[in-house]
Amino acid sequence: MRDHGKAASKLTLVQADVRIGNHPPEEVAKWRLPAVKILNDYLETASAAWQAHRAPTPHGRFNLLGKDLSVLPQLRQAAVELLEELPMRTTGLGATEMQMLELISAGNAGPFDVFPGDRKRNKRCVFGYWEVGCLLDGLAHCPAPAVSGLEEGPFTLQMHDDRNRHERYKRSELKLTPLGEAILARTEDFSRHNPIHRWWGGTELTNDCLWRWDVANRALIAP
Q1: What is the helix, strand, coil percentage profile of the chain, to 5?
Q2: Which one-letter DSSP state was computed for residue 87?
Q3: Alpha-carbon distance 59 to 216, whole Å?
Q4: Which pLDDT score, from 0 to 100, does residue 34 have?
């Protein structure tokens, strides 16, 4: 909205503490949440965050952590959670993928048991529904799987529209492979055994150009 000054000057920002999409409009209308006028500080901070997310390296997103982001209360936590989705230094997997492995290791896990969401054991909601399905595909349908038992795939609209395929997917009984167990124990690296090619914002991650996140030191590691 920064390029539309007149329109932006008429906007107000309302920040809820919960997902408003889970509540009916009539309930939300009664909350009377505080609203603030959109000022230039908001536009400048939002623009910096968007440019950082689109950049070809994660440096911009990491550098956001050293700035005052208080005008957008959720932005700092969002920046941290996105950095945690970079491949970890020791495992080559992001935080959501590692959470999936942990839940599968506990036993009795089907695909939708490891998806994040409300009332789910997986509380990481960085990625959307379709993105999470692709992550699970990547763990199970690869040259050296970390997860076994996923009966269907890929996780696409076509699979959802096919009732039989969707039912087989839901009935899958997931287990860790020996590689998955080693990754969970931090003794193996997924990227040493499998091709990596995905996007983290504007950053293309491949085996030859794999930016990593050092969880212990909260540090960015260049390829």
Answers
A1: 40, 15, 45
A2: P
A3: 18
A4: 84
